[in-house]
Amino acid sequence: MSALFRPLVALxxxxxxxxxxxATATVTSVTGSAGVTNALAxxxxxxxxxxxxxxxxxxYWSGNSATLTFQLDQAYKxxxxxxxxxxxxxxxxxxxxxxxxxxxxxxxxGLFDQPPAANVGAGQVTMPVTFAQTALAYQYxxxxxxxxxxxxxIGEVSFNGVAAVVxxxxxxxxxxxxxxxxxFLARRRRR
Length: 191
What we know:
Blueprint: H1 5-18, E1 22-24, E2 27-32, E3 59-62, E4 68-86, E5 90-96, E6 103-109, H2 110-113, E7 124-130, E8 138-147, E9 151-163, H3 169-190
Antiparallel strand pairs: 1-9, 2-4, 3-9, 4-7, 4-8, 4-9, 5-6, 5-8
């Protein structure tokens, strides 16, 4: 490898490595299907305290057919979440790359998943959830209550993961320069 090319490769790889650090995903929009009240409360930055009444500072609905959909600022390979939800219901979280086709990622319930120190027997509870990092990067997350008393709420959500690598213009320029140098060296060696 040419002495001229090594620094370009090192700079390009450094830029890519820095852009693949774990981060908290930013929710850019929340939409609720028919029957959901106050959908935006599920990602407004206000985390209801453990034991808070299920309809306070939360998106809420009755029954198991309604959904909440979160759009993230970009695609992430997700690895954890923090969910504040009504304690006695089971919620299914599914992910999508396109906002149309969803795959189940995890389920969570205050009955089984709340931290022991929370000791919540009514209202909302905050639960950290960890799982193996997803192989694909997802930009949409959908939640649906699948079991419980039919009075459901999500007080707040946050998702963590590694942002999909999208090279910045400077990184792209370095990579293009490196490819150009490789082409030049390959052509020079043929002579």
